[in-house]
Fold:
Amino acid sequence: MTDQLFESSAAATADCDNTEPLIELRGISKSFGSNRVVDKLDLTIYHGEAVAVIGPSGTGKSTILRIIAGLLPPDEGEIYIAGQRRVGLIEDAQDPVGIGMVFQQAALFDSLTVEENVGFLLYQHSTLSHRQIHGLVEEVLEMVGLPGIADRYPAELSGGMRKRVSFARAIVSNPQNPTDRPAVLLYDEPTAGLDPIASTVIEDLIRTIHSGHGCRSYLIVTHQDSTIRRTADRVIFLHRGQIQWNGSITEIDETDNPFVRQFFSGNVEGPIQLVQ
Ligand SMILES: Nc1ncnc2c1ncn2[C@@H]1O[C@H](COP(=O)(O)OP(=O)(O)OP(=O)(O)O)[C@@H](O)[C@H]1O
Structure:
């Protein structure tokens, strides 16, 4: 199953011009008070790429996703999306490609059922019938391995189930507007706190969404070894807001970079020190 997903992903990306930069960060810095979290970062993501951004806690991974998503302004540096410079936040400027973000926190509305949560935007902004939305919601719930829970309330679900429901909400799309689908998806720790089987469901789903839509690219921030290996083609290792290492997924077991070696071994001795 996994091999099939990986093969279909490779086939889909083969049609992409993956020499063409989709997202470029040039000299990006960001501080919170005196805490310099991103430090003159240069980063290029190409069309159709599946990239994992990894590294120790507090090293700026989520901050970079938020900057790319246009939710947080950098202090300095330039951002180019499909060759166009973005000035300001996403609300001030329209990016030439859609960028969607799947957040780490499963923020569901407690007073709404699972169906109302997952179908929220479709109920608000589409002309689809109740029946059509119900069908779409059931479909995505099945995709995340949670069929038949549409009538339940978030309080009746486990933390991992809530997380998968919020993932379902992030991927449900309106068939009336297929062009609404974002060309870039940013996943912030989508499998954190999930059991290994639920993680596999989400990892496979990320691959399927990617391979099913041509040149879609994604960045995934994760600490989970399985998620890194099953979802990424390229890995960027971040340390103190700078790229410490960058290589293909097969190179992570071959490199002698001390940061990468320490990270994957979990050894407390090494160049990475826990942030106090
Ligand atoms: N809005 C904010 N205000 C103040 N400090 C912030 C803010 N957002 C992030 N930080 C700080 O920036 C640093 C990097 O945070 P970030 O969430 O990007 O790290 P991370 O690499 O994603 O960490 P983790 O792996 O633990 O999720 C941390 O020290 C964090 O406390």
